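Q: Hi! First time asking for a complex rather than a single chain. Here are the components, and I think there are three in total. Is that enough to go on?
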Amino acid sequence: MTFTDWLRADRLPHIYCAGCGNGTVINCTLNAVDQMGWKKEETVFVSGIGCSSRAPGYIVTDSLHTTHGRALAFATGIKMANPALNIVVFTGDGDLAAIGGNHFIHACRRNIDLTVVCMNNMIYGMTGGQGSPTTPPGALSTTTPYGSEEPAFDLCELAAAAGANYAARWTSYHVKELTHAVLAGLRTPGFSFIEALVQCPTNYGRRNKFRQPLDQVEYFKTHGMLVEKVRRLHEEGREIPPDTIVLGELARRNRPAMGVKR
Amino acid sequence: MRHEVRFSGFGGQGIILSAVILGRAAVMYDGTYAVQTQVYGPEARGGASMSAVIIDDSPILYPKVTDPDILVIMSQEGFEKYGVEVRDDALMILDSSLVHTRPRCRYLEIPATREAKMTLGRDIVANIIMLGALVRATGIVKESSLERAILDSVPKGTEDLNIRAMKRGIELATEGRVQ
Amino acid sequence: MQGNVACAEGALAAGCSFFGGYPITPSTEVAEHMAQRLPRKGGTFIQMEDEIASIAAVIGAAWTGARAMTATSGPGFSLMMENIGFAVMTETPCVIVNIQRGGPSTGQPTMSAQADMMQCRFGSHGDYSIIALSPASVQEMYELTAAAFNLADRFRVPVFLMADEIIGHMRERIEIPDSVPKVERKLLKQGVLPFHPDDDLVPGFPQFGKGYGVHVTGLTHDERGYPCATNPRVHEQLVRRLVEKVEGKRHEIADYRVTNPDAELVFITYGSPARTVEQVVHDNPGKEIGHLRFRTVWPFSENALREFPNARAFLVPEQNLGQMAREIERHTSVPVIRLPRFGGALHTPGELVAALEGLK
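A: Yes, that's all I need. Here is the structure of the assembled complex.
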């Protein structure tokens, strides 16, 4: 089997824009799921609302496309009622960190056995490009026309502080690393959080000087720095550029978890 | 025969539990009907607390106490709120250690809180003393039924203390005189 | 037994195996009792971070085949509304208990009300229909909670137990039956599209984990379950079916009690005011005072009103300004007299007798 066996061929073409990074993340995730050897009938994909959350509709397993921000609460119900099911949640930055922020930290605190893949495009893509909790300061969106004046959330730090067993960040450029991180998350009992920065050429790139989709991918490549290196520079008292994207595993531990298959 | 009993005191005295125990004695051990209701505010302790029980031989339709024929009053505030406007033929059992006013209706003075503290060493069982006195003075449920309902309802390890409190209440009511 | 405890016991008797909830007065005893009892019966109790998450978890659990329930009151009920619409749209069987208190907003947390009857029917956005029951005794807290699960599974809708604080917190005698009737949730037949309805307009249930590979979405969807949100025909067909599968069966779902059908003056009640009317009827022997008591409030069965052919007036005591009275008015030319009583107190028999005297 390959990851394409997990796709619902009769739903194609998909709704994503040309150049969108979400497809890469879906492929990486399905690749990891495929490597786990899970059966389709034992796997459930859950999502909320937004571009990222349309992903389960393209996957052949049972899937629940829920309300905005609430995917983790629905997934908690599924997992607690039937721990034998493997559950992957697709979400985005607005869905997870704005409207769903409370469910996010509580799912981390419970350390419930879910794997959450967040496609962070730093913007509300589906509604046409409004600022989100991860829009970087200064970035332009339809609701931050003079540049965002709010600090952004660091989703991995948030997950780690709230109690998740696993947190990692990669981007749509880092296909192998991202696949590996999702795989590590799927293997980890408890709450696993994988943040994937993705380009949104239509609603983010266009307004923020990334003329071509690949320009933003290139930015991920040049601005990414492994967490180990960031920590070393920090210890040595050396300067870390403020627009650095910290990559790699930010948390990996074995706190007691809920909903683990016995 | 329908009896309407109203309990009042302050939160923490076990006013609601008293009503629950009395209702339980009636339903579970006397085989009659009972409905227990309450009025409560946000306070878990302090404040005026009120609970009520209706006991009847036949099923109870209207569940609220409007004109009680029996009152158990355990605080001055409770008296002022629920003990002033009562019918003339009602009987009020009042905790004379805490209630300083006397009603127009018939009443029986039971120094329950003082007795609980002095004789039994725990003022927490004052409500059980009042229950013992109530049942002796009115016969509203059998004393054996009350005893079983108390045993069902109190925390493990306090059964003996509570039964002694009930018996003390029965004694006080036997010695006392309805005025 | 207390009403709220009887509700929890009725749910357990019906095989409820999942409870997700959040503490709120005056419903909390339902959650507390489930927290104590469910784990020992092999079920799951989870206290969620809010009521939005509670109903979400309940819906998620329902898709694994569980009989799932939550319990709340006014403010929490308001928070649940969006996901209740999701349950309607995805045809998820679940039970929602509302022990009603005084509102709007924080209102009267410890006092009784019946002012969420319209919110229960119409509170989420869009056109839809649901089923709601209203108990008037501790016994009915038990029986109707158990019945709610059967209705939820049969019609694949959220079913509401619309109780009030008086019934929820009252303790009275209850007879626990050896067992309660149980309707099995009809599973989807192989080879049938997951949202293709049977003759009863209800599709078979494609339970998660059984290999159906079903996509469940709150978007307008076709019979495959696939999003189809811009096709007016698909949307209209879906919404009409969601409404019709309940409303078309309203006379069958209807559950009411009739006393003195030849009476000219007829009280119509549900929930705790029924107890006052029963007292009034009892205290005035004869056939002059009629009483129609709804145990099912939604869908509303107008046939019930025809049980009283001689009715000259319908008197409707409610713990609100006349929410069900408004519904009754839509279905009759008989004058409907609203008898609102709120602030937490229950109508007294004297008040209702006075209302009758005014009509004689």
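A: The longest helix of chain B spans residues 159-175. Let me know if you'd like any chain examined more closely.
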